[in-house]
Amino acid sequence: MTDLEKLLTDLATNKVEAEDLEKAFDEIAVCLLRQTKLVAGQSHDSIKEIEFYFSGEYYNHFDSYAHSNQYKTVQRQGEFGEWYFHRYKSADAYAKQKFCGLDIAFGNNEFKNFGGMFIMELALLLDQQFMKQSKHLSLH
């Protein structure tokens, strides 16, 4: 299990003390932004911009952006490791959206935790150096 996976699993299964919730998110952010790269084909990208959203009864933390309601399309945030393009309905509609990105869920329905990481921007890595131009996530 990777450090990132352990951090997220502990959060999703109430193994993080409620008073340490902010510290846990800080550690997850450091791991994502400094130690993680996304690889697709020949493209190696570093994560440049993320948002977290999380709701959990145990933590007494309720985020209105966490998708914990009854609609099937948003219940995915209760499934650990589920990923999907944010608000995706069709390629045309997605390309016109203001907020495009990749959602990766780390919730747990059994523990009533719903959360996700919204990856909004990537930077292409060349020879371990960032390119100056970053890219917002899209289907192009």
Q: Low-confidence parts, pLDDT < 50 over ≥5 residues?
A: none
How large, in whole angstroms, is the Cα Rg?
A: 16 Å
Biggest β-sheet description: 6 strands, antiparallel
- Average pLDDT works out at 79
Q: Structural class, judged by helices and strands?
A: alpha+beta
Helix content: 10-25%
- The helix/strand series, from N terminus to C terminus, equals HHEEEHEEE
Outline: globular
Q: Quickly count the helices.
A: 3
Domain unit count: 1
Please state roughly what percent of the residues sit in beta strands, choosing from under 5%, 5-15%, 15-25%, 25-35%, 35-45% or over 45%: 25-35%
Strand tally, please? 6
Taking the alpha carbons of the first and last residues, their distance comes to 32 Å
Overview of the molecule:
This protein is an alpha+beta fold and 140 residues long. The protein has one domain (3-136). It has helices at residues 3-12, 21-35, 91-96, and strands spanning 37-40, 43-56, 83-85, 102-105, 113-126, 129-136.
